[in-house]
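Q: For a teaching handout, I want to show students what a protein-ligand complex looks like in token form. Below are the inputs, and the small molecule is NAP. Please produce the holo structure.
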Amino acid sequence: MPKLENILLVGASGRMGNCVQTLAQERGISIQKCTTRPCVQLPSPWPSDVSVVIDFSCDSVIGQMVAKLLERRPPFPPLVVGTTGLSNDTMESIKLYTQRAACLVASNFSLGIAILRACVRLAAAKLPDAFEAEIIEIHHRHKRDIPSGTAQSLLNDIRDAQMLSHGASGETTPESVKIHSLRMASVVGEHQVILAGPGEQLRLVHQAENRSVFAHGAFHAAQWICGQNPGLYHMEDVFGI
Ligand SMILES: NC(=O)c1ccc[n+]([C@@H]2O[C@H](COP(=O)([O-])OP(=O)(O)OC[C@H]3O[C@@H](n4cnc5c(N)ncnc54)[C@H](OP(=O)(O)O)[C@@H]3O)[C@@H](O)[C@H]2O)c1
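A: Here is the structure, written as tokens, with NAP included.
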């Protein structure tokens, strides 16, 4: 596996950007920062040894960043996107980039969330129609997107699993699953899925205790993607779940 040597970081001044820089320092990996204000500017001259681009910014930055990367001559660096709340236009830009390079989009980089999603898919598929599902997500007050990207992914997991297993004719329609979002103090991130049915209740909860869990996951993803062919990947591919 190629060594992760030099990361181009988009969103370096943010909460996650700072966390990624701390981890890179601990691991002896160099970081190049990508300017995002007043507009996206790639480093010039381009550092020849950039292994991967990691993004923790916001939706409006990504389209600009991808356009700038595509203006360059090949080789195109792999891209790891951690930003959540992506618009359809942004996803289209990312898909365009996947024709040239490997690209991973993750609403959550933690292993715990990948396992939670697998458990939720299993539960939604196996529990009978009579079970109702609800999702609660709690984050810090500064989080921009609501609901969280992870809650949205969990909702899609429940819908897909129920549709596959029960079809659209079940008593509990996939549309009836709701996300309840709370914004409180400095909470890093909590996701809870409640499945309640006749006489029993199943609660699956994940709590992120600090942001470094996401930074570690982003580095794991960045290391993994360096050896991949152009295409769109997810954390399930990285963890083999
Ligand atoms: N995938 C995961 O595991 C995971 C985990 C945690 C967070 N996230 C997501 O990662 C993203 C960043 O989170 P964060 O907490 O680090 O946010 P943050 O502290 O607000 O940082 C956002 C970064 O993006 C830049 N930025 C924001 N809006 C911009 C704009 N309109 N134009 C130019 N630059 C802009 C900011 O620059 P300034 O400093 O100049 O404002 C900053 O560097 C969010 O979408 C969050 O939901 C994902």
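A: Two things your students might notice: Helices lie at 15-27, 59-71, 88-98, 111-126, 149-166, 212-225, 235-239. The radius of gyration is 19 Å.
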